[in-house]
Amino acid sequence: MKQIINHFTDDDLYKLTMCCAVIDNFPRAQVKYEFVDRNNTVYPKGFAELVEEQVELLEQVIITDEEIAFMRRKCYYIPDWFYKYLRGYRFNHEWMHIWQDEAAHLHIEFEGNWSDTILLEVKVLAIVSELYYIVTGQTDKLDYDDYYRKSRAKAERLLEAGCVFSDFGTRRRASFDAEDTAVRAMKECSQSREWPGKFVGTSNVYIAMKHDLTPVGTMAHEFVCAIGGMFGPQMANHLAMNAWRNTFRGALGTYLYDSFGWDIFALNFSEDFANLFKGLRVDSGDNIDQLNKIAAKYRSFGIDPATKQVIFSNALDTDRAIEIQREAKGLCLPSFGIGTHFSNDFAGIRPMNIVIKLVAVKITEAWPFYNDTCKLSEDKGKHTGKPEVIRRFMEAIHMEEEDVPVKWLP
Known about the structure:
Layout: H1 13-25, E1 30-37, H2 47-57, H3 65-74, H4 80-88, E2 96-100, E3 106-113, H5 114-117, H6 121-135, H7 144-160, E4 164-167, H8 176-190, E5 198-202, H9 205-210, H10 221-231, H11 236-248, E6 254-256, H12 262-268, H13 271-276, E7 279-282, H14 287-300, E8 309-312, H15 318-328, E9 333-338, H16 340-343, E10 354-362, H17 387-396
Helix pairs in contact: 1-11, 2-6, 7-8, 10-11
């Protein structure tokens, strides 16, 4: 079996930036993660062992001088000490437990220092996704010449519509070559002539380096959810924004606000934060409804929302991005992060619906894991976490009662 992850920076930028902020603000924090397959896929026999082999191969993957030089050039906001940390970083398969149950469903858990384990999530998801298509014999459906043409056609439509967009597709890509092909097509299309829109780059740091693009991304729900687990959800956004400011001093100024819903975030989002952060990212709920709430909040501070960036990343495709662009233009500075639609859109291939979520956290190794965490989505009924934890967090922030799921949901 070929090695699937061969480059340290074959990863989303936000995993690296969050790692930096974690070391800076929570250096002794410990966490637990769990893998969730929302499609309840039945995996081939022995699949877990193949994933384990790929995870062990990660131990050979270290950052190179070329990758560090690229990040220093493109990611000016990352402090120099962090590259010293990355030079010494080594993956360890013992952080992880991987198995299949009697129904052949895949289970993955990992636990350890937050600053170590944070760099596993995206790589492991990319491994599971690509490995599944290899083991099930579907790789002959991956026609990359046709995919280049298909990706270029998507880029043409988005650019012509005035969309500012980037690739967010690493975690559920059909293969490394699929994401690489899509990014290459979009870059070459964007450079073919002047367009109303703009292709701004990719979240994948290695692919950005390969094509001399800008790696894009800031943070994920994980950062806020972990802080909520350590200190409670009421002030988690305030503490997260302060921690982010402490590390990046105003850079990477797009905040992902919906870890515990809009209402509690809006209470935490004071005028100083509104001025500090360049904008917000919408990742759940109705896109336009969320945009209207964002615009109203900015206006309450005397800030023109048309001067603020809003990044939409909620399960987008080309058609939906163009539709949002038409509605959002003039109300904000809209941009779009598009994932699976860019990196896994082959005829005859069903994209995987897999995630890895942080489920428990403690501020230091001396503490017990007594206070699990969860994510409260703006999409009703799509909270993620243990039912009792979801109820506790909803009660803490006075979120409206609703049926709580009995298992992980999309």
